Amino acid sequence: MKKWLKFSLSSLLIVILLFSVAACNKGTGTEKLEKVRLAEVTRSIFYAPEYVALAKGFFEEEGLDVELTTTFGGDKTMTALLSGGTDIALVGSETSIYVYAQGANDPVINFAQLTQTDGTFLVSREKIDNFSWDLLKGSTFLGQRTGGMPQMVGEFVLKMHGIDPHQDLNLIQNIDFANIATAFGSGTGDFVQLFEPQASIFEKEGKGHIVASFGTESGHVPYTTFMTKESYMKENKEIVEKFTRAIYKAQQWVSAHSSEEIAEAIQSFFPDTDMEIMVMVVDRYKEQGSFATDPILDEEEWNNLQDIMKEAGELPQEVTHETLVNTEIAEEISKK
Q1: Has residue 86 got a pLDDT over 80?
Q2: Are 259 and 283 in contact (CB under 8 A)?
Q3: Alpha helix locations (H) across 83-197?
Q4: Integer angstrom CA distances of residue 213 from 152, 260, 329
Q5: Of 261, 263, 256, which is closest to residue 278 (Cα–Cα)?
Q6: Is 28 within the bounds of a domain?
Q7: Among 89, 84, 41, 36, residue whose Cα is nearest residue 60
Q8: Whole-model pTM?
Q9: Picking from 96-100, 172-176, 191-195, 197-201, which range would have the lowest pLDDT averaged per residue?
Q10: What per-residue confidence (pLDDT) applies to 14?
Q11: Domain contains 201
């Protein structure tokens, strides 16, 4: 009897120990997380939902350990993706068209949209109370890199307002993306096309004044999307589904929360940016509908993208929506 009792107590202790270990493992869940390498084209408040997904643990909830790297430039981001240096890239959809036009055997597929407008603003050196686009004629305009979405959207909007960017302006395009704001701040140009938060920082410091939004003027376009190689999607469909689900959760969270709450959630990604500026920037992007509320990149947006590229003379060939965009996962997740 004593032997049986001793055996039972020992067995009970073992069972309790096993359950305790299992409970601890279940609580952390770290041993089950699948690693996903994500490269973003730049670090920008424009990508707030991405940072919310990371900060709020939405990726972990889906069983993913997402490692974020900033690659600074569309060409570098796409090189990292094509060479296998990253699994998923956040970059402008135009890059997938460029890769496809070069005859890629393993095309890059857009599967989840993050932003749905241009993210740049027109900043004037002088304060203008009654702005009109024709005021740019004859001015020195500090534009963005040729072939990139900011420059193509910029030219598209200027032409909409009857301005030929190569005839009516002194157009400067030979300054590296990272140095455009510095060049304007040091006195180059009457107008500049800038992303946030730099546009708002200049305004706060009295170095410039935001007079128009290229995002509002150009309408919906798949400005930045999550994409991956076709082979990766086929081999890792479940990971792509989990990733998209986490992004959708973040998009819904951003849609439902205030600019102050969003700024607080993503503050750790912008330690050197003043909170007041962050709130201002998030509010501006929310107001003009820059943050997509679901990950679906629809055909109308895709066609608008190609119209903008064509107008800029940068569309190597027309590519159908179904060729480089997969909406099946995004649509299924959005319905649920």
Answers
A1: yes
A2: yes
A3: 94-101, 149-160, 180-185
A4: 14, 22, 32
A5: 263
A6: no
A7: 36
A8: 0.87
A9: 172-176
A10: 38
A11: yes
* pLDDT over 90 (residue 262): yes
Inside any domain, residue 73: yes
> Token digits for 36?
């996903």
Q: Are the C-beta atoms of residues 172 and 189 closer than 8 Å to each other?
A: yes
**Of 147, 223, 157, 167, nearest in space to 193 by CA:** 157
The DSSP H or E segment spanning 142 is: strand 140-142
Q: Is the pLDDT of residue 12 over 60?
A: no
Q: Hey, what amino acid is at 33?
A: L
Tokens of 196: 């946030």
Q: Measured between alpha carbons, how far is 25 from 31 in angstroms, rounded to an integer?
A: 8
Number of H helices, E strands in the chain: 16, 10
Same domain, yes or no: 241 and 325: yes
**Integer Cα distance of 119 and 135 in angstroms:** 22
The angle subtended at Cα 111 by Cα 108 and Cα 117, nearest 5°, is 100
Q: Render pLDDT for 203-243 as a digit per residue (tens, 0 to 9).
A: 999 999 999 999 999 999 999 999 999 999 999 999 999 99
| Residue 285, pLDDT above cutoff 70 | yes
Q: Are residues 77 and 51 in the same domain?
A: yes
Cβ-proximal residues to 224 (8 Å cutoff; 6+ apart), any chain: 41, 46, 47, 90, 91, 92, 93, 113, 114, 115, 119
CB of 215 closer than 8 Å to CB of 119: yes
Rounded-to-integer distance, Cα 212 and Cα 194, Å: 11
Q: Looking at residue 192, which CATH number applies to its domain? A: 3.40.190.10
**The 3-state secondary structure of 258-279, one letter per residue:** CHHHHHHHHHHHCCCCCHHHHH
pLDDT number for residue 89: 98
| Domain span including residue 166 | 120-218
Rg (CA), the chain: 24
- Mean pLDDT, all residues of the chain: 91
Angle between helices 149-160 and 299-311 (to 10 degrees): 80
What DSSP state is assigned to residue 36?
A: E
**Dist CA 282 CA 234 (whole Å):** 35
Q: How many residues can be counted in the chain?
A: 336
Query: In this structure, are strands 88-91 and 140-142 parallel, antiparallel, or unpaired?
Result: unpaired
